[in-house]
Amino acid sequence: MNFKEETVYSNVETANSKQLAILKKHFPNCFDRDGNFIQERMLEVVNEGDIELSKESYSLNWLGKSYSRLLANLPPKTLINEDVEHNLQDQHKDSKNLLIKGDNLEVLKHLVNAYSEKVKMIYIDPPYNTGSDGFIYNDDRKFTKEQLSELANIDIEEAERILSFTDKGSSSHSAWLTFMYPRLCVARELLKDDGVIFISIDSNEVSQLKMLCDEIFSEQNYLAELIWKRRAPSAMADNNISIDHEYVLVYQKGNLEGFQGIEKDFMKYKNLDNDPRGDWVLGDLTVGMTEGMRPNQAYDLVDPKTGSVFPHNPNRVWAFIPPSMEKMIKEGRVVFPKDSSKRPMQKRFKDELKSTYNPLSSIIIDKVGLNTEATKQIQELLNGNVFEYSKPVSLLTTLIPQVCAHDDIVMDFFAGSGTTSQAVMQHNIANKSSVRFVSIQLDEATKKGSNAYSAGYMSIFEITKKRLTKAAEKLRSQNSEMQCDLGFKIFETVEDFRVEVDDKELTLSNLTMFDDAHLTAEQYATLLTTWALYDGSELTTPILNVELGGYTAHLCDRRLYMIASDFSSDALKALLHKLDDTDDKGFDPNKVVYYANNFDSVKQMELNEALKSYGNKKSIEIDVVVRN
Predict the structure, then answer these.
(1) CA of 189: how far to CAs of 72, 78, 220, 257, 510, in Å?
(2) CA atoms of 360 and 120, how far apart (whole Å)
(3) At the N or C end, where does the chain have fewer CB atoms within 10 A?
(4) H or E segment at 199?
(5) Binning pLDDT at 50, 70 and 90, where does residue 511 land?
(6) Helix, strand, or coil here: 299?
(7) What percent of the chain has pLDDT over 90?
C-alpha cells in the first residue's frame, strides 16, 4: 500500500514550470544536481538525431507573452459542479454530450486530466477584436507587480505595464494575444494525436493568429486557411471594398492521415451507349501544360472513323502521349464530337474512380450558407434574433465529417449560441453516427436593451442552453425513428469553497485540518465531481454509491472516495470486508481518497493502519490519498 498527501489544484506554477517538468522527465541528463539546465547536452541529443538546426530567427512577441505563458500553467481556481436537476431528466440522463458554464480557460484546465488526447476536433469562433465586437481583456487573477515579476521571470517595469492593461481592460493586439495564447496551449493538450483545430477569424487578427498557432501547434502542422463567404456584397462598404469573407485557420496535432473530402455528385453519370463498363461522364482530355513544357503531348488528333483532324492547342496539350492516346481510342474511351470546332473528350467511368470524394476546396462556398442563414436558424428556433454573429450550421456540418469518425469528440470552447453542438446532432442523424460534443460558454450577461435581454435571456449561456433544447426537440420530431443522443449534461465552474489554511492565521471562523467540514449537499457533490474529473474520469462517467456500515462512500473508475465526516469503526470493518469478499468481484478499488478536513488524525491513523494489514485476498494494490 502506498500513502500520500495532496492538495488538488493548489500547487504554485511559473511561466515555464510544466515545460521544465517535461524536459526533466524525458531528458534528465540535461540537468545538473542543482536542477540547472545544461544546454550543450541538449544540443548533443539534437545533433545525434541528425537534425539540422534552423538558421532562421524570428518569433511573435508582445507585451504580456510571459504572463500568458504563466496563465497557461496556473491551475484552475474553481471547482466543477453538476446541474443534477437537469442531468436527471430522461432526455439527458444517459447523454454523453456536455454543456459547461464558465470561463473557458478555467474549464479547459479542469478537463485536461480526463480528456487529454481524447478530442478529435476543436472548432472555435473567438472574439475577432474588431473594435466593435465588445472584446475587452480583463483578468481576475490578482498579482502584485513583485509576484508577477517573480512568477513570469520578467522585470518590474514590464510587470507594471502588463498589469496596467490586464487590470484596466484592453482591446489591443497584445491583450488579444494574451487572451488567446493560454487557451490554445491547453486546447492542444486535449487534442488526439490525429486531432484538428479549426479557428474562425477575420482580417483584424488573422496574421497574428497564424503566427501564434505556428508557435503553439508548430508551423509544420499548419494545414490550410479556408475562406468562407459570410455575406453578400454591401453597398455601404468602406473605401468601396466589400469585405465579404472570413477565414478558418486549420492546424493538426501532428498525425492526421488527411481530410475525407467532399463526396462527388454522381447525378451526371449516365450510360447513354450501354457501355459494359457502366455509368460514365465526359471529362477533359487536355492538361494545363504548354507544348514547350510537354512537346511529346503536342500533336494533332485524328478521328479514325471520320478522318476529322483536331489540332493541338499550344497552350493546353493532350493528357496522353500518342501510344497511350491510341490505346484509349481503341478501348472506346475517347468521344469525338461531330462538330470539328469542339474538342474530343474522354469517358470517366464511375466504377474506375480511385475515390468517391473530391478534395475539400479551401474556398468553402458551395455547401456553406451566409450569415443570414445562421440568423434565420436562430430566429426559427428561438422566435427572434437573440444572438448576433453566429455561424451557419452548414459550416460545421461541412467540417465535422472531414475529420470525425463514429464516436469522436468535438469541442467548442467559445460555444456562443450553440451552433457547433447543433451541427453535431444533425451530423449524427445524417450519418447514423455517435459523435459527442463538449461545448463551453461563459455565463456572460446580455446587454440591457438588446433583443436577447428583451426576450428574457439574462446571459449568453441561457441562449446556448435554450437553442440546444429547441434544436433537439425539432430533430426528435423530424426523426422519431432514429436512436440518437440528442441530450446534453450541464456542469459549471463554481467558487472554491475549500478552507485555505496555508499562510493564514487560524481563527474561530476558520476550520482547521482536524475540524469537521460542514459541507452543504451541493458542496459535497461539487467536491466529488471535481475530484473524479481531476483523477481522470470523464464528466459522464457514473459515480456509484457504496454503503459501508451506514457510511456512504463513492466508487468511480476503481477509485473509492470518502468525503463525509461520519466515518466510523463500523464503516472501516465494512470496507475491509468488501475488500476481502472474493464473491464481490466488482469491488476492487486501487485507490482510496479521503477528505482530510473530515478525517481527524485518529481516523486517518486507524484507516491507514487497517489498510496496511488487511488480508488482501483479492491481491489489490491500493494507493491511499488524503486530500485537501
Answers:
(1) 11, 20, 17, 19, 37
(2) 18
(3) N
(4) strand 191-201
(5) very low
(6) coil
(7) 67
Mean pLDDT of 381-393: 92
pLDDT in tens, 448-490: 999 999 999 999 999 999 999 999 999 999 998 888 999 999 9
Are the CB atoms for 481 and 462 separated by under 8 Å?
no
Q: DSSP string spanning 406-464?
A: TT-EEEESS-TTTHHHHHHHHHHHHHT---EEEEEE--PBPPTTSHHHHTT--BHHHHH
Give the containing element (helix H, strand E) for 6: strand 2-6
**Predicted pLDDT of residue 500:** 56
Whole-angstrom CA distances from 381 to 125, 182, 374, 390, 474 are 21, 34, 11, 13, 8
Closest Cα partner for 163 from 178, 177, 173? 178
β pairing state of 544-548 and 489-495:
unpaired
pTM: 0.86
Closest CA to 105 of 150, 62, 67, 56: 67
Rounded Cα gap, residues 591 and 555, in angstroms: 10
Q: Give the closest residue to 87 by CA, choosing from 491, 357, 628.
A: 491
pLDDT tens-digit readout, 59-73: 899 999 999 999 999
Is 528 in a helix, a strand, or coil?
helix
Average pLDDT score, the chain:
90
Per the structure block, which three cell numbers stand in for 573?
470493518
On whether the CB atoms of residues 410 and 437 are closer than 8 A, the answer is yes
DSSP state of 37: B
pLDDT tens figures, 102-118: 999 999 999 999 999 99
Q: How far is CA 238 from CA 134, 235, 241, in A?
A: 21, 9, 6
State the pLDDT confidence band at 507, using cuts at 50, 70 and 90: very low
- Retrieve residue 135's grid coordinates: 472584446
Cell of 82: 453538476
- Give dist(CA 548, CA 538) in Å, integer: 25
236 C-beta neighbours (distance < 10 Å), count: 5
Set of cell numbers at residue 305: 472513323
